[in-house]
Design goal:
single chain; binds NADPH dihydro-nicotinamide-adenine-dinucleotide phosphate; 2 domains; alpha/beta; 40% helix; 6-stranded parallel sheet; Rossmann fold
């Protein structure tokens, strides 16, 4: 079997058009959706992510602004900046790019963002809403994965979904979202004994570990949908996922490439959440 490639880039362009229409309709009602992105420090990868997020918003006609703060910014100054953005009526979404410098308490920062503007979905209130199946802002990466599965008409209900990785930003919310869609969900972590026993029973296999090419073809069920969230920069500059594309694409039914799979969808879902935040102010 040769897997069908899930073209995240093309799908994300299509999905962005739908959100552009919703943004246009909002503008006709006098609301221009606005996103503020805060970046603290000079992490080059973070700077690229932030620029891409702002650009995607502009492409669909949203207002976006980047607030750059130096690495030695005191925590209190960052919190004041967030509070000022919470107050602004023209800003509907606020995102603080992670990671933050060590002297800043990330949890305190995330809890300061208004729950109504928490377009990353990391505030405890929104995490809780996800747990009870009532979320407004699903975290962007798992939201993007769910959207990819839906766009490819890959069934979720009743399927065995296995997630490798249990981070708060990918693995855990992903598990909750698929559970909400009536999949049977297993979550694996670095202590899981006999990982292949789990991965090989997955109809939907989602991998988010940050370990290059760790899932190989012999660990995957024939015909499975394999979603590779990983983005790893190799010494030669190439980007690779957490899935060994070459061997897995011979076994799987569907597979996402890296780059061009989940990455573009993450940004698209940020646009979606910003539009949703603006719609809720009507
Ligand atoms: P984290 O480092 O926060 O979490 C990694 C998870 O993988 C942990 O739960 C860890 O287990 C688990 N893990 C590590 N090794 C193994 C193993 N051998 N077997 C099973 N589980 C293992 O990473 P993130 O979730 O933040 O990111 C994961 C990857 O996804 C990275 O490559 C990142 O760059 C990428 N990413 C991509 C995004 C996109 O838009 N495409 C967005 C966000 C992340 P334990 O908890 O036991 O340590």
């Amino acid at each position: 079997m040769t897997a069908k490639i899930i073209e995240g880039k093309n799908i994300s362009e299509r999905v962005r058009k739908e959100w552009k229409q919703r943004a246009t309709s909002l503008k006709q009602q006098g609301v221009l959706p606005g996103l503020a992105v805060i970046i603290v420090g000079d992490n080059p990868a973070s700077k690229v992510y932030v620029r891409n997020k702002a650009k995607a918003c502009q492409e669909v006609g949203l207002h976006s602004e980047i607030h750059e703060m130096p690495a030695d910014t005191p925590e209190s100054t960052l919190l004041q900046k967030i509070q000022a953005l919470n107050e602004r009526e023209d800003i509907h979404g606020i995102l603080v790019q992670l990671p933050l410098p060590d002297h800043i308490d990330k949890d305190k920062v995330l809890e300061t963002i208004s729950v109504d503007k928490d377009v990353d979905g990391f505030h405890l209130y929104n995490v809780g809403a996800l747990v009870v199946g009532n979320t407004v802002f699903p975290p962007c990466t798992p939201f993007g994965v769910q959207c990819l599965l839906e766009q490819m008409n890959i069934p979720i209900e009743g399927q065995n979904a296995v997630i490798v990785g249990r981070s708060n930003i990918v693995g855990k919310p992903m598990a909750l979202m698929l559970l909400q869609k009536n999949a049977t969900v297993s979550i694996c972590n670095s202590k899981t004994r006999d990982l292949a026993q789990y991965t090989s029973m997955a109809d939907i296999l989602i991998v988010a570990t940050g370990k290059p090419k760790m899932i190989t073809g012999d660990m995957v069920k024939s015909g499975a949908a394999v979603i590779d969230v990983g983005i790893n920069r190799m010494d030669d500059g190439r980007l690779v996922g957490d899935v060994d594309y070459e061997s897995v694409s011979k076994v799987a039914g569907h597979i996402t490439p890296v780059p061009g799979g989940v990455g573009p969808m993450t940004i698209t879902m940020l646009v979606a959440n910003t539009v949703i935040a603006a719609e809720r102010t009507l």
